[in-house]
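A favour, since you know our structure tokens better than I do. What I am after is a single protein written out in full by you. Could you add the entry underneath, on a fresh line?


***
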Amino acid sequence: MNIGKSALAGAVVLGIALGGAYWLNDDSQPTVKNTETQPKQVEISQVSELKQLSNKIAEDIDQLHPLPEQGEVSTKERMLVSFNRMQASVGKFNSSGFVKAEIQALLNDPAVIEVAKNTLVDLEGAMAEFGDDQAMARVYSIKILDELAKQGEPYPLYETTAQLAEKLNEQANQDVAFSKRQDLDLEELVFASLNSFEESQILENPQIVMDELGYSDAQHDKIRKIYGNLFGSVFVRHASIDESIARVQELFNKQGTNNG
């Protein structure tokens, strides 16, 4: 048998067995289909479409509620326009991103922080300033203080929490009903405040955090319950329900004054 012909025949068989992808001569190269770029191209296209959608929504809101430049109108008027812009984004794509950017634009004006604080503490003033939009103004005022805390300035949030707790405590002691769901405002403020702390701080030194947020053993039972429930929601992440309830009772079920 001719050894050369035999080897050639074997190579041909091997090539066929491998699917015919390779030829024997050195001039030919295997044809490899590049499939890696296709998913990347699809992903880039999808990102582009989402960006276009986000931009279109922002443009529509700009047309409906154009935001005045800082200094063109009063701080309160500019805040109200911004609140309506944020509300118009609710339920739409990238609403959270739009709201975050809008709040950041407001925070460029230091006066916004004081207006937000007063809106939450002084209900009568909020109604006078914002009219029928006072509820919306309170919602976004909490978001403003929350965002400020996330950026490393939590004390306006803590101060507002303590001031509203003090005001509602006075009302509770006088048997005056909370107006316009202000107790829910306090819940949101305490919740946002707790999120600004490391959980280890709350677990290991709850009394220090309680003091920072304006809690007092002398407060009315209605106010103590708000604090207790929200601290308890942190405790229960790290202990059993029974252990968490016991800790809440130890910290918050104190006998205050004039609790009726």
Observations:
- The first helix runs from residue 3 to 17.
